[in-house]
């Protein structure tokens, strides 16, 4: 029996409950660490799919991707990252997808502005890899807590504690395992659940299923039973747990939420070992959506009237309809499809009749959403990443930072007669955040310089120039790989240096471009007075 509630507190109570049960996270990893496999495994545990292979299905991947742009089809990759939502226990989990393969782009970073936690997925044999490091840096800059999953423990690899040392040494994050592997890498038998001061609480033994297609059955044993069953390998795991405790590597919720420590789970996404433990950890320890500060620094509480931030805009996902989807993360209040909200940047009303979620090729209509949820809005022509939508009391959230570009190219229209169209298209793509646009007086407006986090952003630009604006373009890569923020005083001196160019980005920031870090270091040494500041995350 539920106790009767008065109508006045019924609505806010429900909203607060919905907020409290949400967990919104993204997986950060290097290509091939197993992100797709883990996503499948999570969906399998949440009973969204009945057999692994249904969403991305490696072998069937080419046929299951969304039909976004010819380019995407040809390359067999999915640029259309969004969110997978599922219920687990009493919780609603939103797994926001990060584009992860050769399609690494600014969008990959932007996703991290829409989540409350990140799962750092590491290949046990390879350790920390470049893309993981870059994404981790963004997570750190945003102050979001990180749960670490050491994947592929079913394969031979490093010793468990060695991997943890690498995390401490290279990124200064203190790993605090919640579960340690029983059995060396390549002989993964199960997990030791660590309790207070590293004391083993239980042994979870997993049984393999054919091809890892279904959930791996678990048996739970007491430490005494584990010793009897596994002998030395259990003793090793217990000793490792004690060593970690002696080094202070036990879970501490406050330090985790502050981004200083990271709970660790050893797993095999392929065999579904440790996947349930990850879900349990997210439910138990990851933070629910919290208030977000607006441009004035005032927090918008999750129970305030509806507000959301756009973190990604996807154009032309469906060639038949030429639609433009904007993905927003709900920050506060309840979203109901059909409600008319206000676009903070223009002050104009925005109708939300077509609201949906996209995962793989599935598009599902969303009728209601709560803080932490991701909703795609159709025909969102005026919306760009960082924009705010709200109902009721006005709010505007700060813009999403631009990330450090590492790829640069000039772009020009092949036919001079198309110049006007070309400029219009450049401005449009710039405002959508597809690519960063740079200019200087030497190069002029006919050949702007495009700056990107991943080279695929260039492909998106040239493909859209052709398909949507009917402008054939010529793209030429520039030999720069590093950008630094500078100022008007330093710019003239920098421009005189060989192999350095200074540009103004469309947000007014002055950027100096360098061929490589040695060139940058040389100039910093020779001309120490010049302003050369790192940009937000990425190339550092
Ligand atoms: P990604 O999305 O991060 O790029 O990685 P993905 O899941 O596609 O996995 C990359 C490869 O690693 C795949 O092998 C996948 O099967 C394998 N893999 C993922 N998790 C595990 C794991 O826990 N253990 C082991 N042993 N392998 C794992 P592939 O050869 O590229 O594809 P497939 O032919 O195996 O499907």
Automatic annotation (TrEMBL):
Pfam families: EF-G_D2 (PF22042), GTP_EFTU (PF00009), RF3_C (PF16658). Increases the formation of ribosomal termination complexes and stimulates activities of RF-1 and RF-2. It binds guanine nucleotides and has strong preference for UGA stop codons. It may interact directly with the ribosome. The stimulation of RF-1 and RF-2 is significantly reduced by GTP and GDP, but not by GMP. It is found in: Cytoplasm. InterPro entries: EF-G-like_DII, EFG_III/V, G_TR_CS, P-loop_NTPase, PrfC, RF3_C, RF3_dom_3_sf, RF3_GTP-bd. The keyword DNA damage does not apply. Its main location: cytoplasm. The keyword Protein biosynthesis applies. Belongs to the TRAFAC class translation factor GTPase superfamily. Classic translation factor GTPase family. PrfC subfamily. GTP binds at residues 97-101. NCBIfam families: prfC, PRK00741.1, small_GTP. Keywords: Cytoplasm, GTP-binding, Nucleotide-binding, Protein biosynthesis. It comes from the Bacteria. GO terms for biological process: regulation of translational termination. GO terms for cellular component: cytosol. This is Peptide chain release factor 3. GO terms for molecular function: GTP binding; GTPase activity; translation release factor activity, codon nonspecific; translation release factor activity, codon specific. Residues 20-290 form the Tr-type G domain.
């Amino acid at each position: 029996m539920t106790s009767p509630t008065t109508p006045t507190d019924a609505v806010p109570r429900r909203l607060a409950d919905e907020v409290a049960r949400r967990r919104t996270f993204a997986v950060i990893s290097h290509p091939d660490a197993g992100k797709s496999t883990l996503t499948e495994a999570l969906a399998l545990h949440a009973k969204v799919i009945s057999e692994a292979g249904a969403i991305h299905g490696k072998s069937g991947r080419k046929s299951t991707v969304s039909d976004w742009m010819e380019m995407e089809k040809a390359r067999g990759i999915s640029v259309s990252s969004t969110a997978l939502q599922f219920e687990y226990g009493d919780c609603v989990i939103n797994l926001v997808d990060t584009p992860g393969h050769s399609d690494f782009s600014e969008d990959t970073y932007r996703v991290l502005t829409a989540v409350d936690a990140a799962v750092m997925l590491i290949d046990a044999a390879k350790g920390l890899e470049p893309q993981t490091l870059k994404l981790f840096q963004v997570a750190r800059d945003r102050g979001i807590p990180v749960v670490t999953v050491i994947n592929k423990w079913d394969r031979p690899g490093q010793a468990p504690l060695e991997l943890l040392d690498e995390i401490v040494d290279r990124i200064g994050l203190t790993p605090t395992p919640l579960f340690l592997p029983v059995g060396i890498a390549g002989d993964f038998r199960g997990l030791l659940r660590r309790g207070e001061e590293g004391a083993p609480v239980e042994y979870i033994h997993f049984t393999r299923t054919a091809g890892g297609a279904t959930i791996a059955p678990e048996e739970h044993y007491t430490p005494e039973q584990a010793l009897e069953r596994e002998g030395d390998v259990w003793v090793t795991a217990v000793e490792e747990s004690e060593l970690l405790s002696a080094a202070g590597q036990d879970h501490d919720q406050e330090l985790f939420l502050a981004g200083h420590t990271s709970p660790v789970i050893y797993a095999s996404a392929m065999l579904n070992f440790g996947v349930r433990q990850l879900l349990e950890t997210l439910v138990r320890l990851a933070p629910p959506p919290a208030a977000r500060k607006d441009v004035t620094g005032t927090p918008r509480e999750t129970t305030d009237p509806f507000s959301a931030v756009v973190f990604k805009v996807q154009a032309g996902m469906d060639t038949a309809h030429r639609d433009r989807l904007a993905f927003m993360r709900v920050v506060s209040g309840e979203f109901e499809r059909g409600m008319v909200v206000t676009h903070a940047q223009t002050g104009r009303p925005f109708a939300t009749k077509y609201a949906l979620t996209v995962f793989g090729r599935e598009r599902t209509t969303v009728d209601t959403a709560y803080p932490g949820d991701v909703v795609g809005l159709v025909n969102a022509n005026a919306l760009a990443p960082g924009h705010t939508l709200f109902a009721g009391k006005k709010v505007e959230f700060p813009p999403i930072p631009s990330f450090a570009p590492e790829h640069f190219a000039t772009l020009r229209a092949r036919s001079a007669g198309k110049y006007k169209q070309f400029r219009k298209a450049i401005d449009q793509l710039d405002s959508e955040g597809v690519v960063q646009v740079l200019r200087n007086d030497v190069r002029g407006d006919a050949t702007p310089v495009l700056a990107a986090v991943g080279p695929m952003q260039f492909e998106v630009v040239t493909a859209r120039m052709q398909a949507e604006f009917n402008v054939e373009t010529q793209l030429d890569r520039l030999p720069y790989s590093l950008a630094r923020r500078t100022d008007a005083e330093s710019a003239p001196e920098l421009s005189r240096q060989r192999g350095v160019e200074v540009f103004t980005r469309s947000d007014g920031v002055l950027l100096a471009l360098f061929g490589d870090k040695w060139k940058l270091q040389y100039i910093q040494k020779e001309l120490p007075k010049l302003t050369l500041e790192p940009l937000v995350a990425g190339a550092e």
